[in-house]
Amino acid sequence: xxxxxxxxxxxxxxxxxxxxxxxxxxxxxxxxxxxxxxxxxxxxxxxxxxxxxxxxxxxxxxxxxxxxxxxxxxxxxxxxxxxxxxxxxxxxxxxxxxxxxxxxxxxxxxxxxxxxxxxxxxxxxxxxxxxxxxxxxxxxxxxxxxxxxxxxxxxxxxxxxxxxxxxxxxxxxxxxxxxxxxxxxxxxxxxxxxxxxxxxxxxxxxxxxxxxxxxxxxxxxxxxxxxxxxxxxxxxxxxxxxxxxxxxxxxxxxxxxxxxxxxxxxxxx
Length: 269
Description:
The protein has helices at 16-20, 57-77, 87-108, 172-175, 196-199, 209-220, 227-239, 241-244, and strands at 2-13, 27-35, 41-49, 119-124, 128-134, 138-143, 150-151, 177-182, 185-191, 200-201, 206-207, 251-260. It is α+β, with helices and mostly antiparallel strands.
């Protein structure tokens, strides 16, 4: 295994159920890298899924992803390490996101709950990974030593079927899942609940590894200039009949890899 710089692709596509009702995609994503304090590179990624019952859920998801990236940028720019991202840090980020959504709601003459959405985020440096999540969706990681894919938190469901928790809720600090660990992550995937039925083995409660191996393979040999094309191929895959026949929900997937394998054929997903 050769480790290089982070390469990442992402796509958010509308589900057939929303297409049929004339709605829009309510998912959002963000992924970028930052210079790490003391050298190296930090990868940060976020995905969010706007609540179907929230009139501004799509806007809430987009604002939440953008705000989380800004908060990570400020943390790193201030010279703080990823090891210093704690549960208290994550809680403060959630509080700041809520404040931003409050301002947006006031400007639009609405309430914060009108922007309800889930949020998943990862921040990864050379030897440490911090993960946070409110609601469903899943984060899947592969470590250098293991070469396997495992989920961090099992998707969080609400009290009733087909419900979950949202970053806009007043008790989101209690609903927040957080983990920070010293581990060398080489590949990371974040996805919204529209892909859970494909990406997870519910009977065993594990990640469906063949799904992730197939998707990561072309990314491992991709040159930086080819990432836009691969993101387009990923979007095409998520819109394909073989995916839509299994899920009619909006779908978001972020894939990031620093495993470089030039011998692997670079093929579309």
